[in-house]
Amino acid sequence: MKIQHFLEPRTSTLSYVVHDEADREGIVIDPVIDYDPKAARTSAAPAEAIADYVEREGIQLAYALDTHCHADHLTALPWFEQRFGCKTVIGAGITRVQETFGKLFGFGRGDGFRPDGSQWDVLLGDEDTLSFGSLTLSAIPTGGHTPASLSYRIDDAVFVGDSLFMPDQGTARCDFPGGSASELYDSVQRLYALPAETRLFTLHDYRPGGRDLRWCCTVDEARRTNVHLNEHTTREEFVALRARLEDGKEFPTLLYPAVQWNIRGGHLPPPEPNGQRYFKIPVDAL
């Protein structure tokens, strides 16, 4: 198994290509479409960089997966589906996110929006599996950041999305609709119960103190040293900490465009009568 990371610098997002080096079949996890909020323009440049690697290495992409419905960047899953013919994948809990945010944005059947997960080819639940080449991916529900958060385990590697950051950054926020610090605590305990040498690959690295980029640590390192949730942290302590950290915390810059794009599986809302497509901004809603 070979794992290659890619950094999208605007949102400090890490994407991954994982492939079987013998038969060259692989997957892409959490790929990004760039969005400039000032100009309201999208760019496939981050996805193109990944695609160049896939083609250069002769990898046949079987799946493009998101670990959850992202609130800080736009997913590139349908871009990879169109480019490579792979299937798109997300956690089955996405329907809860679609229902919550679909109501917030006023989406409905009149504009073709269905909160049933039909925008993806595959919805994964607890311990569901996918195979590519000689490798098998299994889904680990890690809710708390969002209700639809999944981690993906492949051999000794687990792609944890936003559930955990590098140990010096802690854990993800839990104050979005449907989030729960108590649920995230349980999710992290499930990750910490994995073998100590298991590698955890994160979705973001904000490089505190200007340190070099990191994207991977072991379960042992995270369990011993994570600054928000380690082996000595109680549930009550963690819930109280997240409440303090999230009191008055700013929302991500791309929250509204990202969620509208992502709950549609990576597509813009349909055009208005003038032919233009729009993102909505609900005022005083959250």
Read across the widest sheet, the strand sequence of neighbours is 1-2-3-6-8-9
Number of strands: 15
Task: Write down the overall geometry.
Answer: globular
CATH superfamily: Ribonuclease Z/Hydroxyacylglutathione hydrolase-like
What percent of residues adopt helix (DSSP H or I)?
10-25%
Look up the CATH topology.
Answer: Metallo-beta-lactamase, Chain A
Taken in chain order, the helices and strands follow as: EEEEEHEEHEHEEEEEHEEHHH
Total domains: 1
C-alpha termini separation:
42 Å
- Secondary structural class: alpha/beta
Number of helices: 7
Low-confidence stretches: none
How much β-strand is present in the residues? 15-25%
* Average pLDDT rating: 96
